[in-house]
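Researcher: Here's a chain I'd like modeled. Treat it as a single chain, no partners, no ligands.
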Amino acid sequence: MALLGSASLCLTAAPACDADNGGITLPAGFCAEVVADGLGAARHLVVAPNGDVYVALQGDGEMGGVEALRDANGDGKFEVKEHFGSGSLTGIGLRNGYLYVAGFNTVQRYKMTPGQLKPSSAPETIVTGLPGVRQHGDKGLTFDGQGSLYVNVGAPSNACQTKDRQAKSKGQDPCPILEHNGGIWKFDENKLNQKQEDGTRLATGLRQMPAITWHDGAVYVAMNNRDQLDVMWPGMFTAKENAERPSEPLYRAVAGSNFGWPYCFYDYGLKKFVLNPEYGGDGKTVGRCTEFTPPVAAFPAHWAPVDIMFYSGNQFPARYKGGAFIAFHGSWNRAPEEQAGYNVTFQPFANGKPSGDFEVFAKVFQGKTPLLNPEDAVARPDGLAQGPDGSLYITDSQKGKVWRVFFRGK
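Model: Modeled as a single isolated chain. Structure tokens:
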């Protein structure tokens, strides 16, 4: 997620919300309308000060790139659509007149012209040669507002096994993947053609974390935790334990942070790190896990966080200000248990720290109960962005919907 700079009045009118809120369930007083649809595999998005919306798309070639949206007639829906760029993208952000986009291996930026929806020139390359394959290759991005850009570099592995995803294969110790993967890297947002070695590793010990944002002097990341406890270690863990134990942690990352992957996982029930079985763990032993920085909050296993946004607007009730919205895409790895996630969750914060339990804010994206196959979900939340008027935008990667959520109650 990006810093949008100073807010201005949104030129897009507040639409009359859909009678069914576009198929999602929201807390009392909130409503929503689908303001765009059929965009493709929509990932992260950003809203410009004038209300234009830019959506990063996942997919090869022209299936990827960016979809630019504008409400030209003031009815609240985005009837003007302009496509530019190509290749599979996730991270996107506006900063000082540039639109930044992150693919598997690069971060690029487009010079934006005030009043124009679509850039008129080719992108500049800010970072090139980042490691990234389809297993955890998606890159999010964020800015600290002081000239630095932060990018997640996921680990192309489940638990750094000698033979990845092979039953009873032990973990490599130390894990060589962590040299170039499994962390957050910091770059100069204005320097062209940087390589990974030109950046600085801010934090390590992370598996996959495209849900990344800058807030209150630190990078916050929500991580996708390890899979297949029962499949990799039959007889030691059950399918139910796999579906419930490895929480999706929310971390606050500062220089030098180490969050323990692949050696440990944060157990949702025990509320502490335990040693991974690849490194001699039995589901109870803590061992070296005391060395690592624990999460500031934890969420149920295999919900699959893919974006995070701290709310700074004034449209929603005061209790939401300063809290974190997290888009949970839903995972495949709860099988044969019922799938879960497929929601946007709110984590309250107060005085810079989580305050109280998380709340599911927007749900029923999955469309059916029980949901056993992720591809049967009606929608999968993916991106979050705050509009200049304080409304909340949510994207869907199944069919490419965009919801706009308002508070209309008391």
